Amino acid sequence: MFKSLANRLTFARILVIPPILLLLIIPHTWAAWLALILFGAAGISDGLDGYLARRDNQVTRLGQFLDPIADKLLVSAVILLLVFTKHIDGLTVIPASIILLREVAVSGLREFLASLRVSVPVNHLAKWKTTIQIFALGFLIMGEYSPESIPSTQIGDVGLWIAGILTVITAWDYWRASERHFED
Length: 184
Prior knowledge:
Elements: H1 5-15, H2 17-24, H3 29-55, H4 61-84, H5 93-115, H6 124-142, H7 152-178
């Protein structure tokens, strides 16, 4: 099942979520740095697993199934914990909520379309959205624990707003690409 390195990387991205969440609730600089390292490695593995699968001609159904799930689990879990710990607060909860709502909606849409045997491939803008989310969340993980010269919270907040805007655009793109399948 997990014979390819790409699938192992994807599965590892899921397995690292609980340690990241545990570290996020520990109010110490070392915990924030360790959470950032694990989260960063998970973010890098997101691009690496797909690259390796294509390069080694090992694209599998399992990988195609697990990869978007791993991304959604990682981003959603970290957003929820950052809201809980108040690293995401105020108006920045709005793009965080939009991101979570889009993940649920697109998952439901993909499931519906799969029942019709219709595939909706990920577009390049959606990949940029995910990359910006990972960077923004990385800065928010550091928040108050970053060096004084780096305004991590502000950078993370702006990044999350940009990701939120891209989230709305990509959700609309998915909807437009699939709406003809809803016609009776």
